[in-house]
Amino acid sequence: MAIQDIYPTALRLLGRPVLVVGGGPVATRRAKGLLDAGARVTVVAPLASPALHELADAGLLAWKPRHYRSSDVDRAWFVQTATGDSAVDAQVAADAEAQRIWCVNASDHEASAAWTPAVAVVDDVKIAVNAGGDPRRAMALRDAVATALETGDLPLRRHRVAGPGATSGSVALVGGGPGDSGLITVRGRRLLGQADVVVADRLGPRELLAELAPDVRVIEVGKTPGHHPVPQSEINRILVDEALQGHRVVRLKGGDPYVLGRGGEEAEFCRQHGVEVEVVSGVTSAISVPAAAGIPVTHRGLAKGFSVVTGHEELSEVPARSDHTVILLMGVGQLRDSAASLGRAGLPAETPVGIVENGYLPNQRVTIGTLGTIADQAEAAGVANPAVIVIGDVVRVSPFAPSHFKTADYSTTTPNTPRSTRSTKTRVLTL
């Protein structure tokens, strides 16, 4: 049988009688698949696998522990033979053919009236692959297609209007990471590919918007420091209104929706209005953007903890130690005041500071100085948001740090070596 002789279709076997002849591993897999389709399965085999025994004992299928009889195909809608004996399989296939019943002959795919494809299910999409009678090839292709659907490389979006009883719309709060499209999660990418409406921030993986289908609506609600053209209350309303119209809505955010992203407010508003909401965590900019400049937020021998705040928040409660990393988000406009506040709290003026603008993007820029110099440096260089500011000794690890920032006080090759207790005030670090 050539692949051109095949007419692909799908059988609806719910409640219909199906016969499986054989009790080994292949018959077991086929029986389970038929049960998943809702068929009433009867197995005929002198011996059956433990799995078939369990299914029979649970009343999920009928098992006749004997050899095959021609009358077994009577009243069956579909037959699967997998005895391992080609003569028996051929007889079953011939009996089914005589009664015009479709039969899969596992012993001879060329003579078989039907083939069983390699199958995978992603959401409500069932993928079935035939590959010229080569089951391993079919499975490899099936897995590749399923992976592409799972990751959003192939579209899962519905185009046909849902029928009666279909579920209403939904909202997904998707963290898009710091901006590079490769840093969105697999789940986030998949949901974006299914969206009817995308409510987008100014930050995040913007280039993914260009990959959306032409009829996907993109609603821009981006904010900049001190300028919120679409207030949060209006964003909340948009999410709920679009979902109540039956749309799949993705709220695409930069970073993580629950890290200074107001995702909690949006999720709460959706639930209050009966809208199903899913939160997909993202790669938070607070950690990932420093990493883009080679700065870990914690490092053995340098820092065991970190605090994340916005540049607009009061910093007096943040631990004022260079071995505790402070991360400021969107804090360029308040940098001079923030540095002064940390200095008043006791953080030494020589504490290293790194600013990473446009993390992971082609125009990424890194500026490194100290708590006492960084405000002047940033002003002279024209540093602007989006930027992440890192304050603490971990900045010394960055490959962008000047050579005199390096110190022997940390080690990854001899991790039990304690960090020096010398005061940073005894070291004068200048650029």
Determine Rg (CA atoms, Å). Answer: 31 Å
Distance between the termini: 77 Å
Estimated share of beta-strand residues: 15-25%
User: How many structural domains in the coordinates?
Assistant: 3
CATH domain class name of the largest domain: Alpha Beta
What percent of residues adopt helix (DSSP H or I)?
A: 10-25%
Shape: elongated
Give a quick account of the main beta sheet: strands, pairing sense, barrel closure.
Answer: 5 strands, parallel
- The count of strands amounts to 17
Q: Helices and strands, in N-to-C order?
A: EHEHEEHEEEHEHEEHEHEHEEHEEHE
Poorly predicted parts = 414-431
Mean model confidence by pLDDT: 86
Which strand order do you get reading across the main beta sheet?
Answer: 3-2-1-4-5
The CATH homologous superfamily of the largest domain:
Tetrapyrrole methylase, C-terminal domain
Q: Helix count?
A: 10
What do we call the CATH topology of the largest domain? Methyltransferase, Cobalt-precorrin-4 Transmethylase, Domain 2
CATH architecture classification name of the largest domain: 2-Layer Sandwich
What is the SS-derived class? alpha/beta
